[in-house]
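Researcher: I'm preparing a figure for a lab meeting and need a structural model of a single chain. I don't have an experimental structure, so a prediction will have to do for now. The sequence is pasted below. Please return the structure as tokens so I can convert it later.
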Amino acid sequence: MQIHRKFNYQPLKRIDTENGRRYIVGEGRPLPSVTTVLSKTKDLTAIKQWQARIGIDEANKIKTEASSLGNSMHKNLEKHILGESMDGSFMAQTLAKVIIKNGLSKVDEIWGTEVAVYSKDLYAGTTDLVGVHQGIPSIMDFKNSLKDKKKEWIEDYFMQLAAYSLAHNEMYGTDIRRGVVMIATRDGKYQEFIIENDEYTHYEVLWANKLCSYYDRFGYD
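Model: Understood. Here is the structure written out token by token.
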């Protein structure tokens, strides 16, 4: 699918610090990434229980492998969108193909992939895809999972989409109020979750609360 370059998207420099990922925007202070804000304000009780159950070393191994696989899947999806050949592991390519077949097939128009956005003086991030999904302008993100997800488990994904759309609207004068999560599971299944209308507004509010909690705790470092 050809990219319709509706906006002049520009990359942002990213740096990883001991306090999480930061984006460099102009001459201002480095802005925390959306994922950093969410991780720093997350209730870690369940994660700590999981680590205690299987051991720190095994937990770190699983997280590292999942992160590497996810990065490779994302790169393959970007390559596909840009008309390039995929590479990497068989599993990474398989996951990408699941999303291509079941998710990208519903995308009518692509405005940009790996689009960097920011909200002035507050936060920044990179969304996987911006464009028109089933006739409606949407922010889209790709995920992979070991097993099926339930909607109540992935509120962070929805807050992430709301954060990206708010920043995109601020930067480019759009009115995107719809987010799509496309998930490929390792057994070849596909899941899709959409937030829009009142549900989208709900996650806008949750994101705003997370952002306030982050700055209340960490300040404007």
